[in-house]
Amino acid sequence: MLLTYHAPRTTHHDNGPRTTHHDNAPRTIITYHPTSSTDPTMAIWEKLRTELDRAGKAAQGALDEGRLRLDAHRARKRADKAAQVLGYAVYRARTANADVTGDVYSGYAADIASHETEALRLETLLSELEGRGKM
């Protein structure tokens, strides 16, 4: 593709340059001239499009990886928080010369296991994603 620009004519007068438009002269026209597909300009645009697509895919991959890392970190933090709550429950029960009931313990233990499982699943997805990126 070839674009040409036709500018108005400039003439010089006593008061300085003046742009004039003759009645039959084009004012400002950009003309499109289709060219062959082997045109070097088209090849440059095609290469640019290809590179932009590749950069977009790389950026999307980085965003996906970051999201997985953040989700795995949050799952680990939830597991840590559940373990902390269980620890406080055991401490409070011991200071009162009692034991944690089985229902309380199993509830907190299930929370910890659930969050640990989610973190492990996300970390596995992350390692698979990293493995595909190194090939």
Give a structural overview.
With 135 residues, the protein is of the alpha+beta class. Helix content is 65%, strand content 15%. 4% of the residues are buried. The protein has a domain at 61-133. It has helices spanning 40-95, 102-133, and strands spanning 2-6, 9-13, 16-20, 29-33. It contains two helices and four strands, in the order ββββαα.
Blueprint of the fold:
Layout: E1 2-6, E2 9-13, E3 16-20, E4 29-33, H1 40-95, H2 102-133
Antiparallel strand pairs: 1-4, 2-3
Helix pairs in contact: 1-2
- Classification by helices and strands: alpha+beta
Number of β-strand runs: 4
DSSP helix fraction: 55-70%
* Mean pLDDT metric: 80
Quick take:
The protein has 135 residues and is of the alpha+beta class. It is 65% helix and 15% strand.
Give the key terms:
135 residues; alpha+beta; 15% strand; two-stranded antiparallel ribbon; single chain
